[in-house]
Amino acid sequence: MAGTVTVTGPPPGMISVGGYRFVMSELEDIVRRAHSGGSVTAFPDALAGHRLAGIAGGRDEIIRLALGGLGVNPLLVEAFQPSQPLTRR
Question: Which CATH number is associated with domain 14-77?
Answer without folding.
Answer: 3.30.300.30
